[in-house]
Amino acid sequence: MSSSPSKQQDQVNLRSADGLMQGGELPQYDFKTKMAGIAGNVLEWYDFSVYGYFSDIIGKVFFAPDATGKAALVESFAVFGIAFLIRPIGGAIFGYMGDNVGRKSALENSILLMALPTFIMGCLPSYASIGWYSTALLIICRMLQGFSVGGQLMSSVVFALEASPESTWGFQAGAVFAATTLGAVIGSLFAYALRENLTEEQMESFGWRIPFFFGVVGIIPGLYLKHRSKEIPVPKPAPQISPDAVTTPSVGGHPQLERQGTFQETFAPNNRRALIASMLVPAFTSGTYYIVFVWMAVYMQTIVEVPHAFGINSAVGVIGIGLCFAGGWMVDRLGAKSRVPLMLGSSLAFGLVAPYFISTMGQGDPLTCFILQGTMAVLMGIFGGAMHPWLISNFPPHIRLTSTTLAYNMAVSLVGGFSPFVATLLQEEYGNAAPGYIVSVLAVLAWLGLIIGSTAKTSWKDDRANAPKLSSVV
């Protein structure tokens, strides 16, 4: 028995609210466009992370020397964190662009904007040459990088997931996370190769500049997206009437809706719980990521003096790429309802073991460091595979990119960017176990966010399903 036209229309409306185009079709990007997006993702995260892997040397080059050298490392990590403060601004602007112009436009412009300041950083004169002006120029370049990357990750996630069935969202999100991890691994391998083959004097003179010059390669996928691929219209909600809607007459006498602005809807009361939850949960992933894959490499190299520290970090990163896919695949196999339990379990385990693991790594045994850092990468892969599908499902498609970039970047700017800085201070003051307690605190915040999110996650779908449809209004 066939469905009635009104019932069929209701089904289309609900499908479009879940991120599909009007008519129930997924947005389609050609294979080359998707590959360019992935390549841009890899190169942009290479550009952004390479600073962290050379932070000890950058501290010596761009800051006034001190007696022990640790103060320069702290100052360098502080500049690393400053770049994150501007990420919410970049996220808001690129998010607005993605929701109103197109996902591809947001992604291509963020990729192009990253390459220039990365290359310029490799050209900057040292503190010994021009004094504090070099430090100021370094900060400006890092802030431009932060502005760019603020729109990149969530643009990539939404770009990938909206063009895929929800049953594969875990794997697709894992692919995006794997691309960012690959970019960081390339940066780590670069650091390992240079540190193993150049003397300390050569590294401080010119060696650290080499990976920044390679950042200009990121222009290539950005230009491809800009000139060789087409934009896909942003999925819009099906037209509906709600008590707060304003209607205007249209041709034929049927009413039309005047939607609120994107930012108004993002900060609307019915979206606030989702925003808060979407800030607290990513605080865990951003903080742990920069502790495990950025700070820990420098910690092993300069503080603990583990042999082949960056080689260990790179090997764990390569394993982490596979774990991103595995974590996403597991989430898809277990279903959408498994996302929250997986995040709860992995964050609890990570929060409990982190202080002991980091303290034990302080003993300096390479094999122990590899096993413990690898175990932490496993827990991160499980959490990350579940988090990204959970995150974008918190918001309706027409404000999804604005909401996710804003919430995610607030978390990263306040927590992730400064986690290496805080970890360095805590380790110096309280010992090797102290940075692990950062992870423990972030795990508590993640649990709080998941509890808040459990009451907000499907509210927008329920509102749209229960609202009267335009087809019923004459």
UniProtKB/TrEMBL annotation:
Asked whether the UniProt record includes Transmembrane helix among its keywords, one would answer yes
- The UniProt record lists the Major facilitator superfamily (MFS) profile domain at 33-461
GO molecular function per UniProt:
symporter activity
Query: Which sequence ranges form a coiled-coil region, renumbered to this chain?
Result: none
Query: Topology with regard to the membrane?
Result: Multi-pass membrane protein
Location(s) in or outside the cell = Cell membrane
Q: Where are the transmembrane segments?
A: 77-98, 110-130, 173-194, 206-225, 274-298, 310-331, 340-358, 370-393, 405-425, 437-456
Give the UniProt entry's GO cellular component terms.
Answer: plasma membrane
Q: Which InterPro entries match?
A: H+-coupled_symporters (IPR051084), MFS (IPR011701), MFS_dom (IPR020846), MFS_trans_sf (IPR036259)
User: From what superkingdom does this record's organism come?
Assistant: Eukaryota
Q: What is its main location?
A: membrane
The protein, known as: Major facilitator superfamily (MFS) profile domain-containing protein
Q: Which UniProt keywords apply?
A: Cell membrane, Membrane, Symport, Transmembrane, Transmembrane helix, Transport
